[in-house]
């Protein structure tokens, strides 16, 4: 079983290691922020990522609205598509005979 890291072993190197193990690393400023938080609060900060402000703008496509399609409307479109293609095949057959 792992034991919690003691506060006296928490430093820039161990905070950087935590960020690397979390999968994304960090800038020197981000590492310093974690050092100041201490090991327990640093882990909580990463685990509770919803609380971290994200100033990145959403891409345009993320704000587009899609029309709602129900199962029945999808079936109706599919039925029309099949009906149209069978009529086209019938027309071709009749034209060639």
Order of helices and strands: HHHH
Number of helices: 4
Unreliable spans = none
Describe the sheet with the most strands.
none
Coarse morphology: elongated
What labels would you give this structure?
0% strand, 4 helices, 97 residues
Give the helices and strands, then pairings:
Layout: H1 12-22, H2 28-37, H3 39-47, H4 71-96
Q: Can you describe this structure?
A:
Helix content is 58%, strand content 0%. It has 97 residues and is an all-alpha fold. The model has no long low-confidence stretch (mean pLDDT 79). It has a domain at 1-52. Helix 1 (12-22) packs across helix 2 (28-37) and helix 2 packs across helix 3.
Précis, in short:
Helices cover 58% and strands 0% of the residues.
């Amino acid at each position: 079983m792992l034991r919690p890291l003691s506060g006296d072993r928490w430093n820039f190197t161990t905070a950087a290691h935590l960020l690397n193990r979390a999968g994304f690393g960090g800038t020197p400023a981000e590492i310093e922020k974690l050092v100041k938080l201490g090991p327990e609060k640093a882990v909580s900060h990463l685990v509770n990522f919803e609380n971290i402000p994200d100033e990145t703008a959403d891409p345009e496509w993320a704000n587009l609205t899609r029309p709602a399609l129900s199962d029945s409307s999808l079936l109706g479109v599919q039925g029309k598509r099949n009906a149209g293609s069978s009529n086209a095949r019938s027309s071709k057959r009749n034209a060639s005979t």
